[in-house]
Fold this protein.
Amino acid sequence: MKGVAITGMGIISAIGNNVAENFEALITNKTAITSIENITTIHKDVIKVGEIKKTNEELIDMLKLSADNNFSRTALLGAIAAKQAVEDAKITAINEHKTGLISASSVGGMDMTEKHYYDYFENPETVKYISSHDGGDVAQKIADQIGLQGFVTTVSTACSSAANAIMLGARMIQSGKLDRVIVGGTDALAKFTINGFKTLMILTDGYNTPFDQNRKGLNLGEAAAFLVLESEEMVQHYNKKVLARVAGFGNANDAFHQTASSENGDGALLAMQKAFQVAKLHPEQIDYINVHGTATPNNDLSEGRAIIALYENQKIPEFSSTKPFTGHTLAAAAAIEAVYSVLAIQNGVVYPNLNFKTPMEEFELVPQTTLVHKSIEHVLSNSFGFGGNCSTLIFSKNKV
């Protein structure tokens, strides 16, 4: 299959406020895992996160919002990234064609809920934040910011959310239900997620080390990224520049555990196999794998075994996790890594898997640890969420 065209991208993460800044950080090993500054928490000096070093007030200024707005941080980040993507795609009349927005989030407006929860009955000014809690409110606020009056929905499947948003968007274009769709995800850091992941005992007290024998867990992060997908008819009608294509996608559930993946990577393998079936490609055609690579004991073992099973006796291409740069951005992760995958194709690079030292004892997989320049036609990107929800995307170079 030719795939669905990607015509625009936008991103804000701990390593950069736009696409160019993110790419520069990736190729110069500029990480952004630091101590917590924007949240008051007892874990401030205990864990490190991929935090965007901008206050809500600064983000509000970037969007030129009124002082009485009720935007959560998740919505602020999402609106910034989505507006970048629309601008990059050179869309000036967003409602002129059948256009939609599919936004992914896991925490929604939790940052405002936990901040004002005890004030709701005493301070009427804070009541406005109750409605901003819902993930659907985040999506609607993003739609309002880009002026979209069409189809708007939210996907929330934990850490695979944005991958499923991209997959749903591609399918809606293929089916003719939409001419173009803005797809991606956004999640802000909140005490809710910090405390929750701390309770699960899957946070490291240092820096995350994907696929390392001595990995201790993940660093949480916050970010937002959106991509504009358009039909072939739209591309031809407007003579649009195509950045890359969504060639394949697959989703599966290994139904193993609420917060852990199957040790054999059953769901991950199924998702990857489905993506290849859709793309009509073979594993040996992949030039780079952007692994989910959370650096938790369970995830890296599961994903590694799935990749080995997928390739059987074939050579496994270079692979790396970019989460040592940004932290794990939860529902936004797949969108962040979709942008990174497209940039890898455009610039012919494989990003380094930072912090790796010792191979895992269960298998001989070794991630790429230095920046590699090579021709890249196809990138496979994995995203696996709680509840066993596994999603895989395949991005391919646009064929002229």
About this structure: The CA atoms of residues 130 and 258 lie 28 Å apart.
